[in-house]
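Molecular record:
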Amino acid sequence: MFVAILVTLSASSVGAVDGSTALSELMTRLQLQHAKLWFAGKLSNWGLAAYELRQMDANLEAASRMVADPSHAIRAREQLQAVGRALQSKDVTAFTKSYATLTTECNGCHRSSGYAAIAIQIPLTLPVPNQLFVDQVAEGRALAHSTCGTCHIVADATKEPSTLRPPTPAFPDIVRRPSFSADGLRLLLASNHRHVGPDQAMPNPRLSEQQIEAIVAYLETLRAGLSR
């Protein structure tokens, strides 16, 4: 897919050379997005996967305007639609299958264009070391329900009756407080909680640093949603 689009450019003029360079940069971005899409989909981070898919589609659409024969980009975008349907249904099995077909389409284009030596594969390692591919907010939401939900209403009071809960503040009320901050929440969750809650009886959840960051991410997202 990536190289096949490149070979449609003529290098007979300065303008063509400049166009080839710009298109090469697009292909480099597509290769990174292809890898990110895989890990996001496999780890059920549907929001990130959908974002990477949109970036790929936009870059392929841009590439199609830069070449004389846009058929390769058109076929790749058609296969991206199948990947998108799998993302919408949150179906990991369907995602894996459609992604493999997309990758096969890339290699078919390379071979038919005389670039069989360039083969794209399903990624084996993370493409970048500084990005989480799990859905941190979803993990934080699950942790909040399992760890904090015994005492606190985590999200929606109409769906989480507080009959059996002690008189503790609901998470939506906590994040609306002017004093709420991510740093303050980190300190609280990492502390022993001896001076928190009714009768200073709030238990220590004993969370790891990664779990604390997940809960912080969830509450910050909850606060952003409530402020809209």
Q: What stands out?
A: The chain is about 60% helix and 0% strand. Residues 14-42 form the longest helix (29 residues). Confidence is low (pLDDT under 50) at residues 3-17.
